[in-house]
Design goal:
With 438 residues, the chain is of the alpha+beta class. The protein folds into 3 domains: 2-32, no CATH class; 43-118 and 242-434, DD-peptidase/beta-lactamase superfamily (Beta-lactamase, 3-Layer(aba) Sandwich); 127-239, Methane Monooxygenase Hydroxylase, Chain G, domain 1. The chain has helices spanning 16-27, 50-63, 111-124, 166-170, 184-193, 201-208, 226-239, 243-255, 290-293, 313-324, 337-343, 426-434; strands spanning 2-3, 8-9, 12-13, 71-78, 81-89, 105-106, 145-150, 155-159, 276-278, 284-286, 310-311, 328-329, 332-333, 362-364, 369-371, 386-390, 394-399, 404-409. The strands form 6 sheets. A 7-stranded antiparallel sheet has the order 5-4-18-17-16-15-14, with helices on both faces. Strands 1-2-3 form a 3-stranded antiparallel sheet, with no helix packed on it. Strands 6-11 form a two-stranded antiparallel sheet.
């Protein structure tokens, strides 16, 4: 019991200042002070210049001012030590709730790397191989067809020249419609089948079994979400667990990723960042969708292995550091070293050139891009750098050469119609991180 008149607690005298501090601490929510996701060190002790990091901080403050993004979180690890972790701006459209380091973001396609790790865990257990045809695990995929002409109303099909393998799904070389030149009718046909309207991953896979390919497997890179949804269903079939349960037990719990999942508990939803887009008048507005209107709700009706996760910068930093450390973190080994090495190599060698549709300087591994031409990429970085992004402006990179992890979390859906929008700042962010290395 606290005796304010005598400033006495259990017989010990304390100052009113100390008492006020205690009362303030009690009044704050437990999560108001974010816990460091990894051991922290001074930047200079890990070869990072504090003065040059200030350039990053100044840039991010400007990028999240009243005319910019609502807010963001940046995080930098070097040699497994946390050297920089900052929150900028605000969490909400009203710019009344300051951004927190432990704010929760919709990470969308950064989910794909997590799904890829889940798949590679099953490879390591000998339960699947990358060259297995998907038809071995999912019904309806025995005889893939390629759309070679006609229209969505009267398609002209022929048998694919090879089966769709798990490797092709993981590397986006299965040939599914991806919005590339010549994909228009295949995309229309896929939209009619509407796999994304599925209620669960089983339903998604069943619908996808009726979707024709736009190209033969292994003949092109075409980034699509459907391939990773199919891989999530394979994880369910092979493991005998729902996809969310597998991720929770095999990845999130061992890595102590406490704020990562397909929905956010109601008690923590005040930490979810508003997701914005630019309206026709050039002003920030809340984006469409149930998660935008009700932050923390599932992003899909099914547990999407392509883009369904919420996470924090701190949680994803632990996941990324596990990969940088060769599959292990804090005594928990999720993957073997050689498996992670394979994930971070370019798997597009069968293509000429062996690059993605997004950059002539980037190939693709298992779960992310791989830098194969550091100079041609036009930004600071390293050969062999690995990473990916999410649709709502979330980014991460893992650089084995520099023993570096860099993460930027924003929450904005860019316009793709050429209308007025906020500038893309990921290149600036990475340049500012790399210029600080000593």
């Amino acid at each position: 019991m606290i005796d304010i008149r005598g400033s006495k607690v259990h017989g010990n005298m304390v100052s009113f200042k100390m008492l006020a501090t205690v009362l303030l601490w009690i009044a704050l929510p437990w999560a108001a002070v974010a816990t460091s996701p990894l051991p922290a060190s001074s930047p200079e002790s890990q070869g990072v210049s504090p003065a040059r990091l200030q350039r990053l901080h100044d840039y991010m403050r400007q990028a999240t001012d009243a005319k910019g993004y609502l807010g963001g979180v940046s995080l930098v690890l070097r040699n497994g030590r946390l050297v920089d972790w900052q929150a900028y701006g605000y969490r909400d459209l009203g710019r009344s709730d300051p951004m927190r380091k432990d704010a929760i973001f919709r990470i969308y396609s950064m989910t794909k790397t997590v799904t890829s790790v889940a798949v590679m865990m099953l490879v390591e257990e000998g339960r699947i191989t990358l060259e297995d045809p998907v038809s071995r695990y999912l019904p309806g995929f025995d005889h893939p067809q390629v759309l070679v002409g006609g229209t969505a109303d009267a398609p002209k099909l022929r048998p694919a020249d090879k089966p769709v393998t798990l490797h092709a799904l993981l590397t986006h070389t299965a040939g599914y419609p991806a919005g590339l030149n010549g994909d228009l009718q295949a995309v229309k046909l896929m939209e009619r089948i509407d796999p994304h309207g599925a209620t669960d991953l089983r339903d998604f896979a069943e619908r996808m079994s009726h979707v024709p390919l736009a190209a033969d497997p292994g003949t092109r890179f075409g980034y699509d979400g459907a391939s990773l949804e199919l891989m999530a269903r394979v994880v369910e079939v092979v493991s005998g667990q729902t996809f969310d349960r597998f991720l929770q037990q095999r990845i999130f719990d061992p890595l102590r990723m406490r704020d990562t999942g397909f929905s956010v508990p109601p008690a923590q939803r005040s930490r979810v960042v508003d997701i914005t887009t630019m309206d026709k008048d050039g002003r920030l507005a809340i984006a469409d969708g149930p998660s935008a209107a009700h932050p923390g709700q599932p992003l899909n009706a099914y547990t999407s292995g392509a883009g369904g996760l919420y996470s924090t910068a701190g949680d994803y930093a632990r996941f990324a550091q596990m990969l940088l450390d060769g599959g292990t973190l804090d005594g928990h080994r999720l993957l073997g070293r050689k498996t992670v090495e394979l994930m971070m190599r370019n798997h597009l060698g069968m293509l000429d050139p062996p690059v993605t549709q997004f950059s002539d300087a980037e190939g693709f591994g298992i779960g992310g891009y791989v830098v194969i031409d550091a100079a041609g990429r036009g930004q600071l970085g390293s050969l062999g750098q690995f990473g990916w992004t999410g649709a709502a402006s979330t980014y991460y990179t893992i650089d084995p050469h520099e023993h570096l992890v860099a993460i930027l979390m924003l929450q904005h859906l860019p316009r793709d119609d050429g209308g007025k929008d906020l500038p893309r700042i990921s290149r600036n962010f990475y340049d500012l991180v790399y210029q600080a290395l000593q």
